[in-house]
Every structure is written in C-alpha cells, then in structure tokens.
Known about the structure:
Strand order of the largest sheet: 1-2
Order of helices and strands: HHHEEHHHHH
Helix content: over 70%
Keywords: Membrane, Transmembrane, Transmembrane helix
Strand content: under 5%
Largest sheet: 2 strands, antiparallel
Transmembrane segments: 16-36, 56-78, 116-137, 184-206, 218-240, 252-280
Distance between the termini: 85 Å
Radius of gyration: 22 Å
Number of helices: 8
Structural class: mainly alpha
Organism: Fructilactobacillus carniphilus
Oligomer: single chain
Shape: globular
Protein name: Integral membrane protein
Amino acid sequence: MDVAVLESLALQAGKLALFLIVVLIAWPLVVGWLTSHLARVVQRTLVVNFSERAQYWVGGLGVIIHELGHLIFALLFMHRISSFKLLNLSGNHDGSLGSVASNYNPRNWYQAVGNFFIGLAPMLSGIFVLTLLIQLLCHPDYTPVGAPEFINQQQPLLSYAQFAGQTTQTWLGETVTAFLSSSWWQQVLLLLLIGTISTTAFSLSPADLKSSWQGAKVYLFLVIIISIVITGIKLIHPAFGQSLDQFVLLTGVVWLVLLILICICLLISWIELLVIAFPLRLIKQR
C-alpha cells in the first residue's frame, strides 16, 4: 500500500472522527448545557413566585423522573450504587432535591464512558415520560422516518441540515395535530403534567454536566478508535458507509428534536407558573 493510499485513508478517518465527535459528543453536550440554563430559569421562577418547598409539591414528580434517569443509566453502565433518594423530602445540606451516588472503576472504559450518558440521562428520562403521556392522551400517528439513501457528498452539511429540519418539522407537526385533535380535558391534563414535570426534571446540575464532561474525554478516544476501524471496514464493504451516514444523520436529528421538545416543555412550564403566580400576587397586594 503506497503513501498516497495511506494519506487518503488517514484523511477519511480524520473527517469521520471529526463528524462523529460533533454529532455524538459535542452536540449532546451543547444540548445539555442549554437545557441546564433554561431549566434553571424555570426552577428559579418557581421558587421566587412560590417557595423553596414548591419544588417538592409542584416539581416532586419531575425530581423522581430526573433521579430515575441517573439511576437507570448508572445501572446500565455497571456503576456501583452506594445510595440514592428519588425525592429527599427532609432536604440535603447541599440543597439537592434528590440524589444518586455511585462509584465506578476509572480503568474500565465502559464504566468511564457511562459518565457521559449518566450526566445527561435526566433529559432522556424526562422526554421519555412526556412522550408516553403524549401517546396515552393524544395518540399521535407518527410517520416512519428513515435517513435518505444518498447524501450529497459535495454539500454534505447542507444535505444533513435539510433532512434534520424536515424531519423535525414533520414530527413536531404530527404531535401538534394530535394534541389539537384530542378532547379538552386531555389537553388540559397533558399541559398540567408537562408543566409540573418540566419544572425540575430537566434541571441538570453542575455536577451532572461535570460528570458528562469527564465521560466525554474517554468517549472521545473511543470515537477516534471507532472511526479508524470503520474506515478500514468501508474498504471491504463500501455499502457500510451508507448505513453509517444514515445512523449518524438520525442520531443528530434525534438530539435536535430532543432540544426543541425540551425547550417547548420548559416554555410551557414557565408560562404556567407565571399565569398561576399573577393572581396570587394580586391577592397578596390586597
């Protein structure tokens, strides 16, 4: 194998590694960072307009869903759970509403990578529960979505962006249509559940983001290794590259939809808190 071929393979592996790093690591971290800041605004609105204890009687269900996300993913990545409280009604000295304490072997790459997903897990558990509620109350009929068979290699980023936008618009449009087609009590119940759960479920703490960042370091090394292996496999099975395109594309779309859904849920929660707080404030002034 001559030098030119090796350079070409190295370039392909480098491009693939960069693309996978953006889609599988950087973009999820950005989504987590944005979610933590937006959720903090909603939680602050709850505390300022009501009380510290309101985080329990309004957002208690969200806290449980949040901690369950940490717990489930910690178990999936074989961390040893030392203690957990899905809802700490007595209050911790650090002000946490719930907690999951776990230990792992830093020499075990699987457990180390798990920190990345454990830190971001509340976003996934929160959206999973809210999606179930939407299914139960509104019964949306989603159109099956598959990645395009061909990606324009001359303008790959534009092609990816167009597909992501179209898919996101389709999924959200079908959700809104199902919501508007449901009965009024289902709409009210769903909005109330979204509002209460979102007040606390998506509140990623600095410790959560730090955990994800620690896992990202090991994840980065793993992605680079995977990119090199995939580049070699594509030499033997060129069709594998097409399947990889589809997987990466759908992964990016899922995280985009996740961010949009979380933003919508947090906006609903924030508006509901302000609407409820307004008449209470007027009563107190009188």
